[in-house]
Amino acid sequence: MLIGVIADDFTGASDIAATLAKGLIGEGGLNTTQYIGVPTEPAEAEVEAGVVALKSRSVSADEAVAQATAACRWLLEQGCEQIVFKYCSTFDSTQAGNIGPVTEALAALLDVQSVVMCPAFPALGRTLYQGHLFVHDRPLNESGMEHHPLTPMKDADLRRVLRQQSSCRVAHIPWQTVVQGTQALQQAINSQTERTLVLVDAISEHDLITIGRACQGAKLLTGGSGIALALPHNFISQGRARGKQAQAPFIEGPEAILVGSCSGATRAQIAEHQKGHPVMMIAVEEVLEGITGPEKLISFITENQGRAPLVYSSGDPETVKRVQQKYGSEKVAAALDNLFGETAQRLVATGTRRIVVGGGETSGAVVSALGPGALTIGAEIDPGVPSMVSRGEYPVALALKSGNFGSRDFFAKAVAALRGGS
């Protein structure tokens, strides 16, 4: 294994796995496998990039550090020469962490001086300029992320955000240096004289490729999935990897779509899907009061097989806030996680073979409940969302979509793509 990735949620893991498996146009990527949690067995010999998916974004900083360092140690045991800490392109975290503390702990474990940090994902409108994160034409704190129920982002200046989270020095390399090319950027990165978290601007994929090439040989770097665009190239150009096209097996069978995100993009996708497919809304209050359980969801999905049925708990931010205030955010999150996780378990047990999931937390709940162990990465359905297939006698095809990802018709497109597998 050449590259090891530690991802702080399940959709983010599949996002960067797709990037590594795809590589640069005309060159191909790496043989990539996504692992659910820290594996207990060695990786297969043919795996060139291993992505460990954790559900650590919303836990305590101490727990996130413990999970990340355990994942790092396993990846190092597999021979990884480069470790990537993957977080969301909207830098989802709180004043206490977890991005800063995890990065600091990994830097200490790997004895690294300068750590490049860049969450930019220009294909989805996330850019970093003068140390400020933008979502399309809006600063992060005016993009809707300020209303996120678990990690509200109130500041677009990531330098300030990191200084609240970490005791390390925080530095910034501006876009004007990045566009000077790989050598100038390497010099800026390596000029640090103490352990430093180095935010690097990027406003285009070309910038991210420059950053990736400048990080050739770096033991640790962090960011969104875009940070990995050129990492396969570094090994392919050295003749240490051949480059390949991502493929996954053909999967046929009943389908289901489970959605727990409240993002604006997801709500628009649900509205689009509803125009031609059966959709059922779940009232969160009824879940908490025991009125709605897995049986109701499974009944609806079973009755509408072959029509891409979708069940969702998504709501506008004000509705979500009201329910959280009444019942408590942790209780709401746990109830929905349990609902979607148990529903997915029962569906698979009775023959469902294609599952599309919307929302990072919901994806984590579903995959944790299914416990597939390892997933083969297939082709991208939309930027950042690959098809994936579990291993074993009865494989299940999965697509895990972060709340803000995907085209307007994503859900129907994903169901069809999972059938093809490649």
Description:
With 422 residues, this protein is of the alpha/beta class. The protein has 2 domains: 3-236, Rossmann fold (3-Layer(aba) Sandwich); 255-420, Four-carbon acid sugar kinase, nucleotide binding domain (Molybdenum Cofactor Biosythetic Enzyme, Chain A, 3-Layer(aba) Sandwich), CATH 3.40.980. 37% of the residues lie in helices and 20% in strands. The chain has helices at residues 10-22, 61-77, 99-110, 158-165, 175-178, 182-189, 205-214, 231-236, 264-274, 284-288, 294-303, 317-327, 329-349, 360-370, 410-420; strands spanning 3-7, 32-36, 49-53, 82-86, 114-118, 126-129, 132-135, 138-139, 169-173, 196-200, 220-223, 255-259, 279-281, 310-312, 354-358, 374-382, 385-390, 397-401. The strands form 2 sheets. The protein has a 15-stranded mixed beta sheet, with helices on both faces. A hairpin with a 2-residue loop joins strand 6 and strand 7 (132-135). Helix 6 crosses helix 7, helix 11 crosses helix 13 and helix 12 (317-327) crosses helix 13. The chain is globular. The two termini are 23 Å apart. The mean pLDDT is 94.
What is the secondary structure topology, with strand pairs?
Layout: E1 3-7, H1 10-22, E2 32-36, E3 49-53, H2 61-77, E4 82-86, H3 99-110, E5 114-118, E6 126-129, E7 132-135, E8 138-139, H4 158-165, E9 169-173, H5 175-178, H6 182-189, E10 196-200, H7 205-214, E11 220-223, H8 231-236, E12 255-259, H9 264-274, E13 279-281, H10 284-288, H11 294-303, E14 310-312, H12 317-327, H13 329-349, E15 354-358, H14 360-370, E16 374-382, E17 385-390, E18 397-401, H15 410-420
Parallel strand pairs: 1-3, 1-4, 2-3, 4-11, 5-10, 5-11, 9-10, 12-14, 12-15, 13-14, 15-18
Antiparallel strand pairs: 2-16, 6-7, 7-8, 16-17, 17-18
